[in-house]
Design a protein that fits this description.
By secondary structure, the chain is α/β, with parallel strands linked by helices. The chain has helices at about 25-35, 50-60, 70-80, 95-100, 125-135, 160-170, 185-195, 205-215, 230-235; strands at about 5-10, 15, 20, 35-40, 70, 85-90, 115, 140-145, 150, 155-160, 175, 200-205, 220-225, 245. Helix 9 links the parallel strand 13 and strand 14.
Length: about 260
């Protein structure tokens, strides 16, 4: 496999739970030494890149904020290319800092777009109704992701998808999706590296969002047997990865 760049998923590929995947940090270091262009992908809509980097650093990875690509980063690029000025954020965590550092602040006047992430307890009736009214007044709808749910430490949690769908249903509008597996996400990630799809491979643990999303964009998909990987899921999936490896530490075996 001859590639110039890699898109590498973070959760489930670099670490599982609170533990780094054995050999992952060394593998990433080797890829960098060999001159590969890399973006590390996360579908989180609650955390800024600095927060993600702090966790990775604590696990022994040498990765900078500029190498991280998230739905928020994709949305910022999308917003700037579209010439959108006023946005209203419906999010939680410190992801708002990502937008602020790019000069994009949440406002309540002159709203051109409502940006919805996994807002947790901020999905109150008041906040949802406020977003609904902005959309009725002409604002566009941007979803940082549209997942249905996710697993937290104390059990399953609703993600942004159900709330985005509610706003779509109420307004008749269709959200522009920024996160995986959307084509927009992968194309903007490639743009951030200045490389083409055929020169890039995606390394992920999710057969649908990582592998299916990348392959649909012409990017080779390498599935790792860590994280959420399940043999039965791979066997039942219509999507077929370009390659399957034990972990990211074994990536060099197919290069």
């Amino acid at each position: 496999m001859s590639k110039q760049a890699f898109l590498i998923d973070i959760d489930g590929v670099l670490y599982v739970g609170d533990s780094p995947v054995p050999g992952a940090a060394d593998a990433i270091s080797d890829l960098k030494k060999k001159g590969y262009n890399i973006r590390f992908l996360s579908n989180t809509t609650r955390k800024s890149r600095k927060t993600i980097v702090a966790r990775l650093t604590g696990m022994g990875f040498d990765i900078g904020p500029g190498e991280i690509f998230t739905p928020a980063v994709a949305a910022i690029s999308f917003i700037k290319k579209a010439g959108i000025s006023g946005v209203h954020l419906l999010t939680t965590g410190d992801v708002d800092k990502e937008f602020a550092e790019a000069g994009i602040y949440s406002c309540s006047d002159g709203v051109d777009a409502v940006i919805v992430g996994d807002a947790g307890d901020n999905f109150s009736y008041e906040r949802m109704n406020g977003a609904f009214r902005f959309l009725l007044e002409g604002a566009g709808l941007i979803a940082l992701e549209k997942d249905r749910y996710w697993m937290a430490g104390d059990g399953m949690m609703l993600s942004a998808g159900p709330f985005v769908s509610a706003l779509e249903y109420a307004t008749g509008k269709t959200a522009a999706i920024m996160g995986k597996p959307s084509k927009t996400f992968f194309e903007l990630a490639l743009d951030s590296m200045g490389v083409g799809a055929s020169d890039t491979a995606m390394v992920g643990d999710d057969i649908m969002t990582d592998i299916g999303g990348s392959i649909s964009c012409g990017i080779d998909g390498i599935l790792v047997r860590t994280g959420k990987f399940r043999p039965e899921t791979l066997q039942a999936a219509e999507v077929k990865p370009t390659a399957v490896i034990r972990s990211v530490a074994h990536l060099e075996t197919i290069l």
